[in-house]
Amino acid sequence: MLPQEPTTSPPGGESDHAHEGNRHRFDYYFRTGMPLRPPPPRIAPSGLWFETRKRMLAPWIDVRRVPVDTPQARMMADHLWQGDELMDGVVTAFARVGTAAGRKMLDQALAHGIDTVDDPPAELVALFDHLDNPPAWFDSQRWEQGRRLWLNASMSGKTAMLMQDFMGTFVGAEVASATGATGRYTNNPYRRNLETANWFRSMTVAGALDRWSPTFQDTVRVRLMHAQVRSGLKKAWGPEHFARHGNPISNSTTMGAAVTFGLTPLCFDHVHGRRVTTGQLDDVMHYWAGIAHVFGVAPELVPATALEGMRLVDYMVATAGTAPEWTARMAGAATRGFAGDGAPARAKVAAAAPVAGMMAYYSSDVLVRELLAETPLRNVRLQPWKSATGLASAVEVRARALGDRLPGAQERLARKARRDDPMWRWQSRIAKAAAARAGIRDTPYNHHDGSADGQLRRSRR
After folding, report:
1. Which of 339, 321, 319, 342 is nearest to 331 (CA)?
2. Cα separation of 428 and 193, whole Å?
3. Is 376 helix (H, G, I), strand (E, B) or coil?
């Protein structure tokens, strides 16, 4: 059963095209007690993602080609229509006061508190009321336990998370469209890669979510970027796109990403022989639920348990859709160096086979083929590299499971937790080196300060 369409007008009484001449009737923010909106018309289950969903989630929930109807799935469908109410309001305020002045106030409030900002807009005050007052459910000790468990996942499990996120970014309809339209992969991927790697690494440090930590502040800046892109894409793509696809960088997609980031490494370990308990999964879910809250996910969408999170993400992944036109553009830009008919080009393609096989193991054959369908790598061999990756992963995870049973396991975990995550430390170093070669030295998270002003208008879908 799909969510029911509202029988009353949303807040403010907007009709189909009442706001700014073209506002859709579902373009509003949910309030408790409202009937749920149906999913956007583009939402339909796709077999493209079925194998990945089943491998990761089947030990805990009923995974079907058409996702099971649950309260979490219905709320996910509803929130595909909305963005981040508080930060969307801040973007509107920045349009009034000027983006440069608005960012200066945001940075001042992040570093010293909203009370130190002269005459801040009401929208910025509302945002910091949210940021300065954690929700009642948040438990800092449980968050720390979840962080430690997430750090303790195998390298293979974290690689699976990284590969599945990569597929969502390049092949999933909503994220691939937004990423492609901004041009951040086709024009200059180095800054985005550095921002992503640095943020993930720093979020694995103890106290990362403390209100005054640099990581907390950078998370708010990333949240602002999402809202700026959302505003710009809505202007660029127009009401017809919204009516079919819902909101770009929706609240549901933000929450779904947090669930996949959080649970995939441990789910991967579990299905490869390193068993995890429901309680451990719940702690890791709490770790990422806290992050999702700072990212602006609406409270009614934040899962209280790992099972709730799995039901959310099962719906999101099942309906992620097929590759939009942007997939071919981004994948084509990334594989341009493999083009050609001669022996050197064929040698390059053959050399890429191990990477493609690894990607297939951590995601699926069909996703890799969809990603590479319009590139010189469309026919690259996936075997024996896929099987070799599976064997190596199984050996690593089993070895980690053995280590869990040896004396001193908790002491080793405590020592490991004193630092950041080793995989993301490595990823950050690689991204930093690549960015430095391109002349990029820092990550101020201000790349989209002009996006909300209409600079994405030329990137029409």
Report:
1. 339
2. 9
3. coil
Domain boundary assignment for the chain: 46-79+134-325+411-444
Residue 114 CB contacts under 8 Å (≥ 6 apart), including other chains: 120, 124, 125, 128, 129, 132
262 and 387 Cβ atoms separated by less than 8 Å: no
Question: What are the CA-CA distances from residue 364 to residues 47, 181, 184, 243, 367 (Å)?
Answer: 11, 26, 25, 31, 5
pLDDT tens track for 102-126: 999 999 999 999 999 999 999 999 9
> Cα(206)–Cα(143) distance, rounded to whole angstroms?
10
Q: Do residues 296 and 131 touch, judged by C-beta distance below 8 A?
A: no
Amino acid identity of residue 311, one-letter, is R
- Give the Cβ contact number of residue 454 at 10 Å: 12
Report the candidate in 448, 422, 430 with the shortest Cα–Cα distance to residue 225. Answer: 448
Burial of 174 (0-12, 13-18, 19+ CB in 10 A): buried
**Residue 335 near residue 372, CB atoms below 8 Å:** yes
Read off the pLDDT of residues 345-386 as tens digits, 9 standing for 90 and up. 899 999 999 999 999 999 999 999 999 999 999 999 999 999
